[in-house]
Amino acid sequence: MDLINSMLAQPGREQFTTVLSRNLEPNTTWFGYDKSSLTHKISKIMKKKFNKPFYSWTCVPKDRQERYFVEFVKSHTWNPFVTGLVQEHFESICQLRMKGMVSDVRTSREQPNWIGDSLWKQMTAYWDTNAAVVKSKKASAARKSERNGLGIHKHNSEQKSYMQIEQELTVELGRPASFGEVFIKAHTKKDGTYVDFKAEKVIEAYKRKKEEKLADLAKDSTEISDEQQPLLSVEEDNELFIQSAMTEEIFLVLEA
Q: Distance between CA 142 and CA 30 in Å, rounded?
């Protein structure tokens, strides 16, 4: 962390690095508002340093994870007070991309240019072991299973990620979009129906909790006129969505 702080403290870094800011000041960007450019950069870092059999992010030693982050710091800068948050986003993207990258080449069995010959032989040999085959089948079955009798999870966003949907909604609404708004957009068909019963249960529970919360706020407030409606912050709205998903025992993560 001392190394990272000293790097961020270098004067004039904003002139030659990408500046990250949650407030999105001019000439800055942030995770989810960058049209996936940060994800692409992080993927390149991992591919460039992929010299061990990293079958998943959890296989990457902690010191190697830290070195990946240092590589990211070399070309990006931010207020040191949000370093922890930046690293959380960074590692979340690493986890998703490592899983996707390795899964793709495991399925295709086409050696990518970021995996050397000897390492490729080692990894393919492992994938062919009984233990790896059984583990893969169990994971696949778990993903495809009808959890709680609600069917396989689907969404209506085609090739769009949740981050892309969030970006579009943020522009459309002129403010940050909440988890619930993104989830509804991703799981609602053009005719207004939901893509599956699971999504419908989460959305209806979320709408119900939100209506109850707004009704309570209106009842408790004596300063709101008849023409005004109480508003929830994005954080409050997000909390209601999380509660709704957990109530239905379907905590669905909004992934990039």
A: 33
3-class secondary-structure state, position 29? strand
For the entire predicted model, the pTM comes to 0.61
Q: Express each pLDDT in 187-227 by its tens digit.
A: 998 888 888 888 888 899 999 999 998 888 877 665 555 55
Cβ neighbors of 209 (< 8 A, separation 6 or more) are: 240, 243, 244
**pLDDT greater than 90 at residue 155:** no
Q: Is the Cα torsion angle 206, 208, 210, 213 positive or negative in sign? A: negative
- How far is it, in rounded angstroms, from Cα 57 to Cα 40? 17
- Both structure tokens of 152: 């396989």
Q: Which stretch of DSSP H or E encloses residue 136?
A: helix 130-144
CA angle 202, 206, 211 (to 5 degrees): 150
DSSP state, 175? S
Q: Which helix (H) or strand (E) holds 165?
A: helix 162-173
Could you tell me if 179 and 233 are in contact, meaning their C-beta atoms sit under 8 angstroms apart? Answer: no
Of the candidates 41, 51, 46, the one whose C-alpha atom is nearest the C-alpha of residue 18 is 41
